Amino acid sequence: MEASADTALYPLHRCKTVYLVRHAQGIHNVEGDKDPSAYNSLALLDAHLTPLGWKQAECLREHVNKSGLAKRIELVISSPLLRAMQTAVGVFGGENNTDGVSAPPLMVENTGVYPCDKRRTITEYRTLFPAIDFSLIENDEDALWEPDVREANDSVAARGIKFIDWLWTREEKEIAIVSHCGFLFRTLSMYSKECHPTIQEELSKLFENCELRSIMLVDRSVLGSDSSSWNYSGMIPAE
Fold this sequence. Notes:
Blueprint: E1 15-22, H1 27-34, H2 51-66, H3 69-72, E2 75-78, H4 82-92, H5 122-128, H6 153-167, E3 174-179, H7 181-191, H8 197-204, E4 212-218
Parallel strand pairs: 1-3, 2-3
Antiparallel strand pairs: 1-4
Helix pairs in contact: 2-4, 6-7
């Protein structure tokens, strides 16, 4: 009897659990719902969260704590834009900083009143988010961003695939990612092409603001090199 083609087995150490989160509602979402062209407005380039967006982040924070996810997630990765980092701090930040003295603040006060019509440098973001590690970003300014050119969908998808491959260089097994609707949609659409139509629909559905979805990454190309910490060889100990 042959194994069913509808199921599959894979070594656990070649899998990662990833929790994908779209940022909470930003002021650009409010304007974009009225007029889609607002999403291209330079006046809303680095939009901050709305009061509703902060409420959404609060609700998701409550969910990740009640469900136990907060204790399982080993790493949080955020898009370096204000609305995404505000969401990351609002949802995942702060629980481990218990003494209030030695730990730096995750975010300075009043980040929601900063101008939205400029692309901030990483140096500026470090001032706003002192506890976030920006060391993986090589340039102080976004070298990929062009103010008058909207990135092509294929380019977004290619960045997404490169990012997923990079995740395999990390040792963490459960990772949260706070990003944007377009990036998540284009990336997941690429990975869903060979899936069952039902799975395609699940993966490719557009994210709502502050929506969280959990997915399993499988290292089919052996990009990761770490071995299992749970497997046991069963060999007889040497005398």
